Each structure stands twice: as structure tokens, then as C-alpha cells.
Amino acid sequence: xxxxxxxxxxxxxxxxxxxxxxxxxxxxxxxxxxxxxxxxxxxxxxxxxxxxxxxxxxxxxxxxxxxxxxxxxxxxxxxxxxxxxxxxxxxxxxxxxxxxxxxxxxxxxxxxxxxxxxxxxxxxxxxxxxxxxxxxxxxxxxxxxxxxxxxxxxxxxxxxxxxxxxxxxxxxxxxxxxxxxxxxxxxxxxxxxxxxxxxxxxxxxxxxxxxxxxxxxxxxxxxxxxxxxxxxxxxxxxxxxxxxxxxxxxxxxxxxxxxxxxxxxxxxxxxxxxxxxxxxxxxxxxxxxx
Length: 290
Fold this sequence. Notes:
This protein has 290 residues and is α+β, with helices and mostly antiparallel strands. The protein is built from 4 helices and 11 strands; from the N terminus they run αβααββαββββββββ. A hairpin with a 4-residue loop joins strand 4 (129-151) and strand 5 (156-176). It starts with a helix and ends with a strand.
């Protein structure tokens, strides 16, 4: 009888181990798998709002986050990307190379009506309008390139890793005026006015650059085969180099009797160092392995 019980126990143990190995193969990523990750916070907020009567069920920033919140404080008009394409490549069953890449390119033309100075002089009843235009060009890029080590043989795995953090952004504003500056009309009607007799033609900020290192620690729980819910915290150290800003203006010089332009340094640039815990790439995220 004891022999049969021992054989039965051995069979159960063998079956359990086989199932465990099968579950590992089904649930966990393997060498050669590719993962795409999304920020899970908007998803959870959306699902939660479905059950509390909230009609504002909006998915916001559904993606990875390549830079920290502190970095956006140094960005001009928040042009540093706050979302990214996030993914991993499983180099082995436990070692993964990962990347978060965010890009943002914006060009905004603002048109404003102004008086037609010449026509107003010729015809006081003139109602024609001209258009002044301001063109804002804002570009930003940020990314993390690094590696993660997956520790664990069950559906809950520890994640340990780090990577290189880089990014830059820039902004340029150009102004186009319909009324020219002349000796007879030294301060023509302009949408953006004059400062000490000069109006702005362009404002250019040299690229703001972010560079540093970020380590991360977290967990991933595989809620379904090759689908995990993860949480991570980062320890980052990076420099922020804010570029100089130059302003080009034009105005009438009464001493020379000519219209002249000036190119002036309006901001000298700054440098900042940041060290501390942060969340780069999404503090709560969903990953899908293929």
C-alpha cells in the first residue's frame, strides 16, 4: 500500500513540476521575444470611471514616459515629449534591452489683423486690414536606452536595470509684419508692438540638453500569457543644460536715418543637476510580449 502511495505522490509531483514548467513557458517571456509597453494609469482610470458614473472617461497619455516630471520644468512651453514609444527585446530569457523614445515637432502660425497704415493715410474711411504672422517652431526629443534583468521563475518577477537618459528641445519664433518701417512711418501698426522703438523679428533658443543615468527596480506580474502588469521606481542623476536665447529686432535709427536690425543675447542659459528617485518610463505599466 505504501508503495502505491509513494508512486502516486511521485506522479503528482512530476505532473505538478511539468505544469509549472508549462506555465513558465506559457506566461513568461523567452529569448527573442519583443515587448511593447503602455502606461497603465490611464487605463485603470478609464475603467474605474466606467463604474462610478463619471462621463469623462478619457484615456490620456497612453504610452511610456521617457523623461521625468522634473525635466519638464526646464522645458520651454513643455515641449519636451511627455509620452514615448516603449519596448523591450529579450536578449536571453532573463536579460532584456529596452528603449523609450519620444519625439515632438510642432509648428504654430498665429495670424492677427492690423490696420493698413498706407491705405488709412490715403483714405481715412478705409476699413481694409492686413495680417501679421507669428510662426512658433517647437521641437523636442527624449529617450532612455538601457537593459533590464528579470529575476524569478514564476508569474511574479523582479526587474532590475538601468540606462542612459538623453534628450533635447528647442524653440524658435519668427515674426512677419505687413506694415514696413519707413522714415515716414517709424512705428507702424504691429500686432506685437514695439519695445524702445524696436519690434521683434525672431527669438531663437539654443537647444536645451538633458543627459544622465537612471537605474530602476520594480516587479512584473504576468496576469495572462505574455501579458504583464508592472510597477517601477527609478533612481536618476542627470544634468540639464539650458541654451542661450537670442533675439533679433528691427527699428528706425533716427541718428543714421536707416532701418536697422539688432541681434542681442536675451538669456545667458543655465545648468542644473538633479539626483533622486523618479519615474521614467511609467510607474505603472502594461507590457505585451510577442
